[in-house]
Amino acid sequence: MSEIFEFAFMYKTFISLLRYVPITLFLAITSMLLASIIGMAAAVVQVKNIPLLRQIVIVYLLLGRAIPTMVILYLVYYGLPVLLMTVADKTGTTIGYLHIPAIVFAVLGLTLHTGAYLGEIFRAAILSVDLGQMEAALSVGMNWWQGFKRIVFPQAAVFALPLLANQFLGLIKSTSIVFTITVIELLGGAKIACAEHYRYFETFVVAAIIYWAISIIFEKIFLMLERKVSLFKKGAAV
Questions:
Q1: Is residue 120 pLDDT above 90, yes or no?
Q2: Looking at the domain that runs over 7-234, which CATH code has it been given?
């Protein structure tokens, strides 16, 4: 058994891989925040049925969910510099696209993919709130945005939060693909350790333990948030 698991090596590998955890968390949290903004905007556009924008949003949601994350990542990483180069050539300006860090493309790719899923999650959450509540808010002098913020959004959050938690946990695992565009996060660090020591099984066991621990921590955080927002299950206004 000691030949399969060299615990001294696993401990050293664990300590070594911990330095990549902040990069993984930065990718996941930043992408989730930006994707939430995009997703909420897409949901509002659909719910309010804004002309032209709604058609653009529908196309984005379809493409964002249909195209694999890695393909989107490659399109952003290889396609965006070409687009910026074309703009620079046409306008004669210096955009400095050659100096954009790879982690920016990683965040953008993960954001675009996750935002498409969040758009549908938020739309379903908003539609789960009875239409009469918005009508009641409008009848007492609120405008649509006030009614959405004070009445609809708190109740929709109760519906959306468990799905949001699942999406975030999936996003943490999706960060593992950014190693393909030279961003070294947790899995990338594990691959480097494997190349150096040729102890693949133990290294990936350690990586799996770290991913598991991160997931448990954030699952607990989301459970706490669910309890907090459950105050609005009966439509309490803030």
A1: yes
A2: 1.10.3720.10
